[in-house]
Amino acid sequence: MKITVTINGQAYTEEVSPDLLLLDFLRAHGCYSVKRGCDTSNCGLCTVHLEGKPVLSCSVLAVRADKKHVITLEGLQTEAAEFGAFLADEGGEQCGFCSPGFIMNVLAMVRELEHPTEAEIQAYLAGNLCRCTGYQSQLRAVRKYLAWKQEGTP
Q1: Parallel, antiparallel, or unpaired: how do β-strands 68-71 and 2-7 relate?
Q2: Rounded distance between C-alpha atoms, residue 140 and residue 143, angstroms
Q3: What is the C-alpha to C-alpha distance for residues 111 and 5, in angstroms, rounded to an integer?
Q4: Count of Cβ atoms closer than 10 Å to residue 138 Cβ
Q5: How far, rounded to the nearest angstrom, does the alpha carbon of residue 41 sit from its chain's CA centroid?
């Protein structure tokens, strides 16, 4: 089946098998921030933005992204670096394996929720598993990042 997917602003057209996962399509096109962690839609490591919404690319067939736009962490370097600095300052990035998916969800949340409550933050990030932290440092980083964004970025 022939599909065209725009990844981080660049269109790719090619023949794919109907069972190819979006995760594998993205990695084949150099998007190595998209990681395989569980293959059961439980860890959040494969999170990407499909048409502006966060999705788990291990649960989406590549054919479902036909004629759509996908953004990976590679396409959000400036924003990712901004939040990543808060994450590092709070000790929320230990091994870093979960960071790309976590960052993708935080950036989507910032776009979708103007002033998220504590409960909304926790609900929004519930699907991100981290084996290194107790999540408190990550939540502190999110709160500080949101406060910084509300104060107005330069």
Answers
A1: parallel
A2: 5
A3: 22
A4: 24
A5: 13
